[in-house]
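Protein: TonB-dependent receptor
Species: Exilibacterium tricleocarpae
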Amino acid sequence: MISNKYTCDLPFTRGLLAAAVLFSAGQTGYAQETGGGFKLEEIIVTAQKREQSAMDVPIAIGTFTPADIRDTGAQSIMEMHHFVPGFEVKEGQVTQANLTIRGITSPNISTGGDPSVATFYDGAYVPRAATTVTFSDLERVEILKGPQGTLFGRNAAAGVVNIVPNSPQAETQGFISTRIGNLGLVRVEGMGNVALSDNLFLRVNALVNERDGFKDNLGSGGDPGGQDNQTVRVAMLWEITDRTDLQLSYDWDEIDQAAPQGIGVGPFALTPGDAFASRVANDVIDGGEARDMYSVTAKVNHEFDDQWSMKYIANYREFETRNRIDDDGTADPLRYIDTDNIEDSDIVYTELQVNFNSDSVNLVAGANYSQEDTFQEIPTTLSTGSIMSFMAGPSVLNLQELLDLPEGAHLWNPDIWAGFSASLNGGTPLPQTAEGYTTAIGRIRAGNEEVPPHFFAPSTAGDFYTESMFNTGDFTNYGIYADADFTVTPDLNIAVGIRYSVDEKDFTWNAPLSDYAQENPELGLFNIFIPQAEAEASDRWTKTTGRLVANYRLSADVMAFASVSTGYKAGGYDSLEPATAELPLDPEEITNFELGLKGDFFDQRLRAQVSYYDMTVDGAQRTVFGQRPGDTGSTFYLINGDIDNRGVEIVLDWLVTDTLKLGLLTYFADEEETFPDTFNDRGELVPGDKSTSTRRPQDNYTAKLDWSPAIPVGELNIHLDYIVTEDRLRGTPDFLDSFATVDGYGDDREILSARISWLSDGGDYEVAVWGRNLTDSELVTSISGLGLSTINTPLATIEDPRTYGVDLRYNF
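Structure follows.
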């Protein structure tokens, strides 16, 4: 193990918090609401399982409101993370989004593992591929940072994403909106809410979104960046009595769009080294990303009296996904490789919650249970020509290096074949025929029976070879919890909470011999990427976690808090690594110490939210992509290590005038890591100290401006946001020096976006023009690819180019 230590004294932290405390001392009472224009909005959240103002909750919370969704055009959590410091989402793959809070991320696509960030929709837990549920008719999104397992349970080790849709209301209301833009964008959304009787209310919303890709694909894999998704939700609320209500809801979400980006930048791509050319050549067969998901939910709320109440929720969610990706970035049949991730999952989630509220104590206690059944298939498909490439060195005796062959040499090249076969035949080349290839195979195997004889005659060109891993999982989670918030004095509150969690997992692996090997047994082939294996495993993990929080009101407008909390994520299994049947992944255990301050200053003109945290993770699960000794090819695999993250998060909102509001979100983060050495895609040892772990406020911030100048008719609002994110790619374990030769790789992200809207008097009509990435910044966001070393085909993903359009909305 190598310990990689990065330290920082955070010199401004104590001074900043101290200054904020002194600053707040002069604040007395609430100022009058700002008349007209903007005001500091009160956002109600349920971070502590009861409704409270976000400014009164002693937790670091990021919120995203309907206005934020309209201003940014966000469709899911993948498009909102730049507006919450310390929260990140890997963009580009709807069914394989990777959520990160305060540097703690989730492992790869494995269904045998769990995310470190728990996602809830309408009060129910949402697993992996369902976390990117489409935003439509939402009340808000809450990002709760730090361990939240006490109240939220399963996998809330690093934090929680809580997506809250609107509930049916007593009044008749609705809207219809259209967003039209370049790249053929058409997005239509509508909502209608009606009272069916004095105590029965219905709300229906739907959204349809389509967009063309931003590059022309000359191959068959669809245009990169294309979008096609629909969502529908129906909810009915029945107020049975003045103390009891029942809500039933159904939601459906479908995505069927082009495969995620796979822009070739290698020597065999359409435009080598240029990720921003207008055309690509991807030839993935039946490529695309799809998800078909539905869910039904029942929620019962009952008040026993003025102090005691209860809530019960039951949810069933089912989804099927596929994500077939071009992993070579070329249309060259000699270098064809694609991967897919196919899932079929259903989950039952239920929770009973009891609340007690009085002047001196607020208590919430309850129990939750979930049961999930999963099926996963992970196929890897290559052409026989891909296998014959000498770039697949481990499969062909590393002959490229042995024979000093040029980069990209291919065995079917007559000159290469002559030299290669002569080395096997006493100096005399073998004929380039089926007989000659058969002789070559025999000579190779005679020399080393361990070597896979993946050599095929040119007559097999166009044939495909598929290896697959099949997994099933049966996961059960249950827990009990209690959390009490005591009012010690009018200004001081102490909260204490505890949870006991149980996770049980049954998991299987089945990696059969490749289809080509089964069809051609005389060749004696065996698997290259996914070794043939069959295994099953069962395990059980338990953990008690809790929190202790003190919050003190420095004035009517300012609160400071200190907390210690623990979080837990169960151990698990790596879908691609049957060896974890005997050596399962360790549980992830987190301890977080936090100091925070929230307040409104200068007569409620400046709102500040500041948090300092020190988070320790034992058994952190990390995904790496590489080729370990003995592997026949590169693959994703999981490792465990330890992390200590420290940082400061700052959110400022300033009402400069009644018509001008400025915002700033930034953070500082520093890490200390202990992880084992890994191997990169070329089989080279990568010490853990290869990664960078300091993020500075001047390099990571989002600045916002909202201006509402007075106009004769209606209201005008001008919104700008500017996102700056420092390059982090060079510090990742998979980084290769050759990546730096690709234009746009390693650049900092600088994205300017704007929206100008007009709202009629009375609020019935809204018209807006908008643009994102207005400077058309060209940025490579990642370089990877399963064929990066095996067939020399690195893939790039890039920032979306400049997009622009108009919004039309009618409210009724």
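Remarks: Residues 2-7+164-384+466-811 form a domain with the Maltoporin; Chain A fold (CATH 2.40.170.20).
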